[in-house]
Amino acid sequence: MAGKPKLHYTKGRGKMESIRWLLAAAGVEFEEEFIETKEDLEKLRNDGSLLFQQVPMVEIDGMKMVQTRAILSYIAAKYNLYGKDLKERAWIDMYVEGTTDLMGMIMYLPFQPADTKEKNLALIIERATTRYFPVYEK
To answer: How would you label 108-126 residue by residue, b for 16+ Cβ within 10 Å and e otherwise?
Structure first.
């Protein structure tokens, strides 16, 4: 498994997108193997590649890594993008967790009942513009 990292995910952004961004920021080329069918996912599950039976999964440095946060932390540390000291890492972690909170709200919107979508979208927009975006802009 040496060489380019290989990303395993569906043909979509979702939880793999932040991993793609971080690899791009590090200047690392990667390959993608898309999960297109239920059988593709079952193959990964059955061969023991998925620790918790779910993706994203990244093959890197001889490992089959799962869990988005663990993958991001590994890549950031490997390519010196995880701060110069403990305080910088804490700041990075706070931004990451804030982004995770916002993305969680956004990602679940399509799966909410139709009668609550409009109200929940308004809440997401309000929180994004008053809580999260000002922090990133600052």
So the answer is: eeeeeeeeeeeeeeeebee
pLDDT in tens, 15-44: 899 999 999 999 999 999 999 999 999 999
The values of phi and psi at residue 11, to 5°, are -80, 75
Residues 96, 83: Cα–Cα separation, whole Å: 13
Structural domain span for residue 29: 6-79
Instruction: For residue 123, give the CATH number of its domain.
Output: 1.20.1050.10
Q: Measure Cα distances from 133 to 39, 77, 97, 129, 136 in Å.
A: 40, 26, 14, 5, 5
Q: Is the dihedral of CA 44, 46, 48, 50 positive or negative?
A: positive
